[in-house]
Write a structure and sequence with these properties.
Bound molecules: iron/sulfur cluster
Structural class: alpha/beta
Shape: globular
CATH architecture: Alpha-Beta Barrel
Number of domains: 1
Order of helices and strands: EEEHHEHEHEHHEHEHHHEEHEEEEHHEEE
Strand content: 15-25%
Radius of gyration: 20 Å
Number of strands: 17
CATH superfamily: Aldolase class I
Number of helices: 13
Strand order of the largest sheet: 2-16-9-8-7-6-5-4-3-11-12-13-14
Length: 368
């Protein structure tokens, strides 16, 4: 009998020390130049990690590996010739889950290099329901290639998810995604917010106006358009609340699990910094290890790899900042992106900025 959705379940995904998330950027090189990309070779390196280094760094997490979600990303991770070997290594060590974030180009015959049982999710990125909108953000031809990649992956038995970074140029197409996701066989849909990550790297790149070898990402598009830094792609609080939760609910009605960041907290909602209460590692090929993705644009990483061991960095670093309590919520947001805040006449904040890792999840409920 065909499944019909009766009611969706909403929950805020609270932080947990019982689960570890390892976001492993194994290279920063990429074939695309997406406008919102947070990768900055000055901060993250431009090297491609050798497989011996990848496995040695994974070994540093041996004692917690069975509760670790490993996310391989880049740059474009399938450009790495040894990605399949890295996945198999993590699988053999019994990682709790393995995800590969990809732009869909699936280099090195990726779908034939790994077995669907080796990977929990292939997570594709698309930033529009139409090729016109997506390609204006991610580059010409990227929509068609990504959709072909999704279809090929699903037909081979891979579980596919999709990441959609909402901005002022694609916000109106979020509502068009539901039937497409169903048609393509997407199991999970992640909505991301633009600006709370990578904003500063983008501005810096634009200001420098100098081409970087292998740089990748937003820099080259800026060189082409010359206008990106002047355009504010971020949604306002009212736009976010009007567009994202209803679209998420609609997509969940199609039987797809949807996750999106809370972003804005009412002033009476409780705030927690994941840097204090969760176990997340954002690893870059230059050896930097951050606990907070919003810090990634700056050399304030709390940890780093040195001779294949994780060591703490000297003060002051992100770990010291996590401890500061302010009425606006996320302290790093206030430092690097104060334009996200608004104040009442008496000087108190109108709302708080949530930790960027605080998510709302909608799970479809089926009636057989
Ligand atoms: S955001 Fe775009 S340019 Fe940046 S790494 Fe991902 S696919 Fe490449
Ligand atoms: S985004 Fe803000 S609240 Fe979340 S870990 Fe970073 S500093 Fe803490």
């Amino acid at each position: 009998m065909q499944k019909t959705v009766r009611k969706n379940t909403q929950k805020t995904v609270s932080f947990s020390k019982d689960s570890t998330n390892i976001f492993f950027h194994i290279l920063t090189k990429c074939n695309l130049s997406c406008r919102h990309c947070y990768i900055d070779p000055d901060q993250h390196g431009s090297n491609t990690l050798k497989i011996e280094t990848i496995t040695a760094w994974l070994d540093r997490f041996s004692d917690i590996f069975t509760r670790a979600n490993i996310i391989f990303l880049g740059g474009e991770p399938t450009l790495h010739p040894d990605l399949a070997e890295a996945i198999k290594y993590a699988k053999a060590k019994n990682a709790k889950s393995i995800t590969v974030d990809t732009n869909g180009y699936l280099f090195h015959d990726f779908l034939n290099a790994v077995d669907p049982s080796d990977v929990d999710f292939l997570s594709f990125s698309l930033d529009g329901a139409t090729k016109e909108t997506n390609d204006a953000i991610r580059g010409k031809g990227s929509y068609e290639t990504c959709v072909q990649g999704i279809k090929a992956a699903v037909s081979k038995g891979f579980a596919a998810s999709l990441i959609y970074t909402v901005n002022s140029e694609n916000k109106d197409e979020l509502g068009l995604m539901a039937p497409l996701l169903s048609e393509w066989g997407i199991k999970r849909f992640f909505i991301q917010v633009i600006g709370l990550r990578g904003n500063s790297a983008r501005k810096k790149s634009a200001q420098k106006k100098s081409a970087r070898k292998n740089s990748v990402c937003e820099k080259s598009l800026y060189e082409k358009t010359g206008s990106f830094s002047e355009k504010n792609l971020q949604l306002t609080k009212d736009e976010w609340r009007a567009i994202v939760p209803p679209a998420a609910e609609n997509i969940a009605d199609h039987g797809i699990i949807v996750t999106y960041p809370k972003v804005f907290l009412d002033i009476d909602e409780s705030f927690e910094c994941a840097g204090n209460v969760a176990d997340n590692y954002f690893i870059f090929p230059n050896g930097r290890v951050y606990r907070c993705p919003v810090c990634e644009d700056y050399p304030i990483h709390g940890l780093m790899f040195s001779e294949n061991r994780i060591v703490e960095t000297p003060k002051i670093n992100e770990t010291d900042l996590f401890k500061l309590e302010i009425p606006e919520g996320c302290v790093i947001n206030k430092i690097v992106q104060p334009e996200n805040l608004a104040y009442k006449k008496d000087g108190t904040p109108e709302y708080r900025i949530a930790c960027c890792m605080l998510k709302q999840e909608i799970t479809p409920r089926f009636n057989e």
